[in-house]
Amino acid sequence: MTTEMLRDRRPGFVEPHSLVFWLFVALVVYGLWWSVNEDVGRWGDYPAGLASSVVMWVLYGVVVGWILYQVQLFEERPVSNIAAALLWGAAVAGAGSVIGGEGMHSLIAKWFGTDFASDWGAALSAPIMEEGLKILGVVALALIPRVRLSTILDGLFYGMMIGLGFMISENITYTNVAIQGSGGDVTGSLVDVFLQRGVLAAPFGHAIYTGIAGAGIGYFVSRRGRPVLGRLLVAIALFLVAWAFHFFNNSPIFDVGGALILKGIPALATLLLLAWWGRREERARYRALATEIDDDLIDAPQFEQLGSRRSRRRARKQAAKAGGSKRALKHVQQRRIDLLVAADRYGSAAPEVAPYAAAVRSAEAATSA
Amino acid sequence: MTTHTDTDPRWWQHSSLTDTRSVVGAAAILLGVLFFLLVPPFVDDRTSYSELTPDGRIAVDEYFSFQIAGGWEISERSEIFLIIAKGGAQAVVPGSVEADPSIAVDAYAQTLADALSNDTTTSWRVSPVQPFTTDAGDEGVTYVGHSPDQATAVWIVQANGRQVDLTVIFPETSFDTLYGDAEAMARSIEISATPQGGEG
After folding, report:
1. Helix (H, G, I), strand (E, B) or coil at B16
2. Inter-chain residue contact B172 with A27, CB threshold 8 Å
3. What residues of A are in contact with residue B151 (Cβ under 8 Å)?
């Protein structure tokens, strides 16, 4: 196998042989172009204020993203995949929901009356437009072979990243509008919008909704061999659950002061349940994989030690108490995870796995020494 | 489930750019995105409120008229108020009332803005009350409020012993595109000193 072929088998977003990849890129470019044009007038009036809003929400996104990143158990998804997911959420879903959303809101007013639209318009329009456009991003990623979206946890993870990208771009827009609307009150607008959208009003909302819907896409692609209809029903059901949580959050139901933050709890609980399911499935898959690898590289107790971030930390603490090095054990643990991921990627008996096996032996030897 | 002794060929056996799966997948995604971008505005353009606005200036009562911005439509009308709407935003336009000379217009607006700030049902961020001038040269005041999903803008004008309030409620996502329309309508407010011959 040539180096070129090996490189091709690494997961990642860039897949020139896929039309979906090129469409994805084209839509992101269009979304960015549209968003910049929309905002360009405001940038001329309040450049420093708007730059502050971008910095604030990007930093907020980094913190939220780091928390969401912890849902991964063994495989760390490629940076290019994560960046693509964030960009779809920010540019394609972000711009698309504004372009089509005005018409949707207007239609609701025409069909059901302006009073109804005033109370319920956002609850009906936003979930239809935003969840629809965000989940299309997860489907697009699933259709690009090299992205390797193949499990419930993959779908959930990329869904959360798309939701995070959307949330950052939406919050920047809201802050920019607020700065302009207040006649340039930058500090007041930053604080107010941060409290409203970053703390009170379901702060992780978009990441949670699309994580739930994305888990449905993960379920669909991970159950190949089962009847399509059943898989489709599960995917649709989880999309509708995400839609319903978004609807509930935007609706006037329980819309009083501090209750806003409580409205997001059922959605968060559902996401955590799906994450637990996805991680359990991934753990079971890697456990089976570990049995195909030589016991001198990773045996059953060593695998159980790797089974969760907590058990890994616990093992390192015990090693330290016994006079060992936490850092050295962490190194060995990471090399074993790399080995499992490589075995999953290339096949446990594939020659490409040999360097990873050698790395485990080398790390163990260093620890013993 | 895949066996673990051999990896899933989907992840590395690349198809060509025009492979059926690649083309069908791209077409499905493109159709999905175009559906959300084009269908709601298309259907909206072909759906009307019950009454279309006449082009140009509309008289809300015998003293007060204003210029309706393009694309706004009458959704409700009575003898004492008018509601016009566009893109999910609606402007509530009551008829003019006699101005109370003992209450300054900015103090009156501040009372309304404070009431919005103190709304306990949702969290509103309200801008300071600011002066503005209509195209006819009359003085007025305005403020803007934002909640997590809605925005509202209010213009109040006093002239010739009468007062006019224009309140526009926007979905937060439409504020940016429709605020200019609302502001133009507010600037076009004209309050006459004498009755001008009924509603238009």
Report:
1. coil
2. no
3. 177, 181
Do residue B148 and residue A201 have CB atoms under 8 angstroms apart?
A: yes
Q: CB neighbours of A150 closer than 8 A, spacing ≥ 6?
A: A218, A221, A222, B8, B10, B11
Distance between CA atoms of A313 and A320, rounded to whole angstroms? 11
Q: Summarize pLDDT for A198-238 with one digit per residue, the tens.
A: 887 667 889 999 999 999 999 999 998 889 999 999 999 99
Start-end of H helices in chain B: 20-45, 105-117, 172-187
Its pTM surpasses 0.90: no
- What span, in angstroms and rounded, lies between the C-alpha atoms of A54 and A17? 35
Provide, rounded to the nearest whole percent, the portion of chain B with pLDDT above 70: 84
Considering CB atoms only, which of B25, B45, B49 is closest to A143?
Answer: B25
Tally A–B CB contacts below 8 A.
231
Count the alpha carbons within 13 Å of A27 in the hemisphere toward its beta carbon.
31
Burial of B21 (0-12, 13-18, 19+ CB in 10 A): middle
Inter-chain residue contact B86 with A288, CB threshold 8 Å = no
The separation between the first and the last C-alpha atoms of chain A, rounded to the nearest angstrom, is: 35
Query: What letter represents residue A48's amino acid?
Result: A
According to DSSP, residue B51 is labeled: B
**Nearest Cα to A25, choosing from A129, A168, A140, A161?**
A140
**Closest residue in chain A to residue B179, using alpha carbons only:** A181
Cross-chain residue pair B121–A256, CB shorter than 8 Å: yes
A165, A87 contact by CB (below 8 A): yes
Residues B95, B173 contacting (CB under 8 angstroms): no
Residues 90-129 of B with CB under 8 A from A: 90, 120-123, 125, 127-128
Q: Do A121 and B88 touch (CB under 8 A)?
A: yes
